[in-house]
Amino acid sequence: MLKGDSLEFHSVHFYADELASLCDYKKLESQFNQFAENLEGCDVPSLELGAQLYSKISGVGSTSLPDPSAYKSSGQDLVRQLISGLGFRITGAHQGVKTSTVILTTRSRSEGVQFVITAPNKQPPAKVSKFDAEDYKHFGIEDLNCFSENQAGRQGVAVLCFKGNDVAQICQQYKKTHPALLATEEPLVYMTAGGCFEIVEVYAYYKADSSTFEATSEADFGTRLRFIEFSGSNCDVVLPGVEAVDATFPKDAPSAWNDHWVSNVVDRKSFLKTLDDTLGFTPKVDFNAGVVAAGEAIIESTVCGNTPKDFAATSITEVLQNQQQIFLPINNALSKVGHVHLYLQEIGQGVQHIASRVQDLPSFVQRVNDYRKMTGEGMTFLKIPQSYYGFFTPEDLASIDGVDEARAKRIYQELKSGDSPICGPTGDIKLDVTEAEILRAAPSATGDHSESIVTAVRRARYNNLYSLLGDNFSEESYLKIVRNHILVDIQAGDILFQIFTATVLQREPGLEAPFLEFIQRVCSEKKGPDGKSCPLRPGCGGFGIRNFLTLFLSIELSKATLEAENLRKEGNVPAAMLFEEMVQVFTNQLHVSNPVLTKIADAMTLEADSLQEAKHAKTAEAKAKALACAETHRTEKEAGNLELQAISESHRLQMVALRQKNV
User: Fold this and answer.
1) Ramachandran region, residue 274 (left: φ > 0; alpha: ψ -120 to 50; beta: rest)
2) In this predicted structure, what is the pLDDT of residue 561?
3) By C-alpha distance, which of 458, 457, 504 is closest to 478?
4) CB 444 within 8 Å of CB 405
5) What's in the keyword line of the UniProt record (predicted)?
6) What is the pLDDT of residues 27-49, one digit of tens each?
7) I need a surface site. Which of 73, 103, 494, 533 has the fewest CB within 10 A?
8) What element of type H or E holds 31?
9) pLDDT at residue 646 in the model
């Protein structure tokens, strides 16, 4: 057995331009701990009161709410963002002569997400750690320079780290199958007071031929994979050379665990083969060509990973905290347009985003958004069109018994008219709309069936979600999801919540950069053929084919929206109008894709269930019947893929026409 099946997620190593002093970061932590404590003690906390509290604690000098338009995701200090917005704390550090490093974790500490962030020193430090940086390759300036030279000088995710129980065997497997990728010929051994570390590092990808877009036999000296093994009695630190740092977490600080790490590469199949040859990682999910497209931008993606042999969760807590199931999605571009292509063109092959899972995503995101609104610090998230969650049409009323088509259309027009329409041009209903406002704006809604009409209008704020999840959530819970721009998908009864931050480590607006993802997996109980409960599985809920496309569309939509806003500020109205038209194309593509995505997701789920049933069938007849069902659902899935490809092609042509019209 290749050793990939016994690996676990360990840590992610970022390289940044610069770090502040540990003292400055700890001062910030103290301020936000005090802020959280005072906020919790308020009888009726509000954004306004929070702004006043933060002003008093931090001494920023303003008691009013920060201007939301003043917040920019570019030019931010990632450490500061993680501390202030996400509740991370520094639990380890290393101060070398040439580099500085901090380790940030959530409340789960070493059992969950561990972000290692290293930067070159702008000037010699006043004090150096008792561990000399020159003795630790993973903190050496040479590695930072090598990464920078091969990543267009950008900041980014430099190393993905896994822990295992036999890194020497992994080293030998790379020597045997992919020796050119070895960054260290033999495991590096580090003795510490607690025990012994062995570390092997390899380059993740091969360089790509710019003319054929295929991998060469030369290593790409950018992103690396690190394999770490520890033997001993005590391991308090993430890496040798790190000194533990005391950290206090506020009560509302969440925990987080690694879920998946995503790469953008030129040759996806080459990377898949490398991971299979060396670690035994195999494909788990394929997003076919044409399925993931936004206008002219088209990509392919495969989720690969290991197959842990000894994990069978019996509780949602075990699934949440499990780090044995490794998933590595891999993207490649199929067009010279869009985020993935631009990322590869600007930066080169590398890690697109890091995904972590939390226990309660809506509450997690609400906290981040509220803290940013009160303090001006933290992170923002990608904007998702409200139409993703739901939108209003006359048909929503015409389906009510006793409401004819003519009355439905009158109500629809009344809600869209007036100085302050309740219904926007794309059918989006005002989120805080009340029954009284609806009846006042739409006189035709009064009288017979008014209660059903009001319910239909209010539900239109989230009717796409409601069609997926029904009465499993309250209106308040649905609106919390909508207000915080959380993506939702469901597969075989498992629910997947996802959200994506704006870019991190981005020096200037418009430049490509990595981002973070946070998810929540809500696993449903499954029964086996014998009627007994099946173990819960890591990765329940899948990767959301609906959300995968929505992410891709949202990245392109957000970029077009930002470009339109900037051009209008500059007074270039014609150019701004072009990007506004692009936004409409992307939004419409999302509208028409949604029902097809539902069909595909349902067919994928039923196909998997049928194959599982065939695997456990007790008779040849039962097995044949299950396999026939699986084939039927596979055919339905492929038909959905073709339908989605047709939608993608239609919108690609619309985007081409837009560009040609404005040449």
Assistant:
1) alpha
2) 73
3) 458
4) no
5) Phenylalanine catabolism, Tyrosine catabolism
6) 999 999 999 999 988 877 799 99
7) 533
8) helix 22-40
9) 87
